[in-house]
Amino acid sequence: MGQTPFLEVNQAIVQNGGADLNACMQCGLCAAVCPWREVEGEFLPRLMIRQGQLGLEGYESDEVLFGCTTCAKCVLNCPREVDIIGVMRAMRSLVVESGGAPETLKAVLGSCHANGNPWSEPRQKRMAWTEGLDVPTYTPDKEYLLFVCCTSCYEQRSQKIARSLVELLNRAGVSYGVLGPEQNCCGESVRKIGDEALFQKLVGANVELFNARGVKKIITTSPHCLKTFASEYPELGGDYQVIHSSQLLAALAGAGKLPLAGTDSRQVAFHDPCYLGRHAGAFEPPRQALAACGARVVEMEREREFSLCCGGGGGRVWMETPPERRFSLLRVREAAAAGAEILATACPYCLSLLEDSRKTAGLENLRIMEIGELLAENLS
Ligand code: SF4
Ligand code: SF4
Asked: What is the pLDDT of residue 2?
C-alpha cells in the first residue's frame, strides 16, 4: 500500500465504505474523547483520518491501524457527523485485502472461514456449553431463537453467561430454542477487522438458516450480535426482532416472571458495554435488572453514554495489549473507587477483559459478573 498514490488510496477508502472520509475538518474533537488518550499508545482518530485523506503510508502497523475498538465515543462528539468507525473499517479492509493484518486477526478470520467461529474451535463443539442443561432446540413454534455468541459457546469463563441465561429463561417459562452447530458467527468483528467478503458469507449462511427455520425473534447474549442483527442484517435479507438478554431479563423481572429473592444488598457498579449503551441506547434495562435483585447500584465516574470502553471491540479482544495500554485496567480501578463490591456487565468481551484486569490490579475483593450470572445467583 505504501507505494500507491494517495488519491488512489483515498478513493479506495471511500469506495470501501469510508464515505465520510473527506468531510473531516481535522478539529480533533474525536481524539479528545478517545480512550487511547488515557493510556500509552500512538493511536488518535484525527491522525488516522488525516492519513486516510492523504493515503495510508506509514499507518499499517498493528498498533495504529488496528487500535480502534469501535467504541463510538468519538462518533457522538464529531461536529461533522463523520462515520469514523466506517472510515476505520474501510482503511483496514484495504490492508486486509493486501494480506497485511496482524497475525492474531488473520487467525480469527481463518477460523471464521473454516469453522464459523473466531476461536479456532471445531464447529461440532459449539454446543459444549450446554452440558448437563435442559436446552431446547429451536422450532418454528418457539417464540425466540436464543443466539449464543461464539465467545459464550467456546470461551470457558463466558460459557457461564449462556448457562445462567438458560436457567433464567427456563424458570421464567420463556419459549425459546437454539440452533446448534449450524449457526455461524454473526460476523460483527469480522466486518470491523475489515474482511467484508467474509462478513457477507457468514451473514448469508445465517440468514439462509434462520429464514429456513422460520426465525422471527432473536435473543442475543452479546451486544455485538444485537447491533449486527438489528442494524446490518436487514440490508442482507435478515429481518428479525432482536433483544439483548439484559433487556429481556429486565422485562421479565419487571413483570414478576423471575422468582428473585430481592435480598442481595451488595454494592454493584454497572459497566455499560459500548455496543449495548452507545451503539444500542440500552442504558436503563441492565440497571433495572440489577435493582430487581435488591442490589444497590452505584455509578462509576463515567457511566451511560460516557462509559469507558473495555478495549475489546474491533477485534482487539484477540490482540495482545500490554497492561499500560488496557482501558479495562482503568475501568476496574474506577469500580473500586466507586466502592463497588461487584462490577457487573452485559457483554462477554467486557467480562473477559475486566476479569483479566481485576487480577492484574490485584483487586481481590471485587467480583466481575455478567448480569445473568448475578440474577441466577439470586433466584429463590
Ligand atoms: S471530530 Fe470529526 S471532524 Fe473533527 S477531527 Fe474528528 S472526525 Fe474530523
Ligand atoms: S471508536 Fe472509540 S477507540 Fe475508535 S477512534 Fe473512536 S473513540 Fe477511539
From this structure: 47
Residue 30 Cα distances to 17, 33, 60, 73, 84, angstroms: 19, 6, 21, 8, 9
Shared domain check, 153 and 68: no
> Which residue stretches of 213-312 are H helix?
223-231, 245-254, 284-292
Ligand 2: which atom is nearest the Cα of residue 314? 4
From the CB of residue 339, how many other CB atoms can be counted at a distance below 10 Å? Answer: 11
CA of 20 to the centre of ligand 1 (A): 10
- How far is residue 89 from each of residues 47, 52, 110, 177, measured CA to CA in Å? 15, 11, 18, 34
| CATH label of the domain that carries residue 78 | 1.10.1060.10
* Residue 153 CA, ligand 2 centroid: distance in Å: 28
Cβ atoms within 10 Å of 109's Cβ, excluding its own: 20
**Domain of 33, in residue numbers:** 6-97
Model pTM score: 0.96
Give the mean model confidence (pLDDT) for residues 337-342: 98
Cell representation of residue 121: 474451535
